[in-house]
Amino acid sequence: MTFLRTPLSALAIAAALALPAQAQQITVGLSLPETMEGFDFVNGMFRTFADEVEANSDMTVNIVYGGALGSPNDRLAQLRRGVLEMTDGADGNYASIYSDIMVLNTPFLFPTEQTAWAVLDGPFGDAMADDILATTGIRVLGWWESGGFKHFSANQMIQSPEDMAGLKMRVLGPLATIPVEAMGASASPVAFGELYTALRTGVVDGQDNSISVFNLINLFEVQSHVILTGHTYAFGPMGISDAFYSGLSVENQQVIDAAAAVAIAYNREASRAAEAEALVRARDAGVSVVELSAEQRDAFRQVMQPVAIDWLRENVDHPELIEAALAAVEAAQ
Q1: Which tens digits make up the pLDDT trace of 170-193?
Q2: Contact 297/230 with Cβ under 8 angstroms?
Q3: pLDDT per position as a tens digit, 286-308
Q4: CATH topology of domain 22-332
Q5: pTM to 2 decimals?
Q6: Distance (Å, whole) CA 315 – CA 329
């Protein structure tokens, strides 16, 4: 008796055709716990993304909260290796793998959030996204707001660069440290988890963060003044593993692109609302919120921006992007 033998490869193909196709899953690693008052502009953005993707495709989105998949920089490394599909790394995290992004942290680069959005959504942001993809293997789907502008706080009135002299300020990284020291303050890299205690005990006199972060750790209990300098804009690329994205059908790529656009629009609106609510909360807690005139802000810019630009020229891969960013801001206004 003769047996007809079907090649193994043919059997495998037949078996695969007999089974339903397995839907792709997008795993998103986030830093914050699932519920965090005042920070829906981050978690809510990714939930919006997930809802849009799942409503318009057979893909599923698994959001893992609370840093369970590692630190932000660890998750970026996983993203580059294709182990993780998405994460919430912000500008400072991306600087560890793509130095040119620090150009967008130039003090007083953006006069308003709307100007920042126009630059990030325009030719400058598109070109940087293309270079991030080529350099890191991470595809930037858009740019989200990570709390908006950072402001100084202290236990005394600050209205000019001279008022900073002699203060011990908790700031992180050279783009914050060098401008603070140019104003006569001393910079101290206190860990975020130790910031409240450091301010309460006088280890440092002040700090800089967005108003949302200021309230997150109850700094209104240990700081009497917030000075609305708006010296640095905090943002994040919404990145996805290009190895994963490139393996999708064109239809599913389009779903992801559209979902990211909806999610970022949600983020920006939610971030603006969160900052407005955070300002009310700080004032209600007895904090003096100091609004500066255009002339006062410009006095800070004249001290802080030049020294930051000098440092950037020596520490980014493409220093010509500094002038390009300044030109893009000018064109966007």
Answers
A1: 999 999 999 999 999 999 999 999
A2: yes
A3: 999 999 999 999 999 999 999 99
A4: D-Maltodextrin-Binding Protein; domain 2 (3.40.190)
A5: 0.90
A6: 21
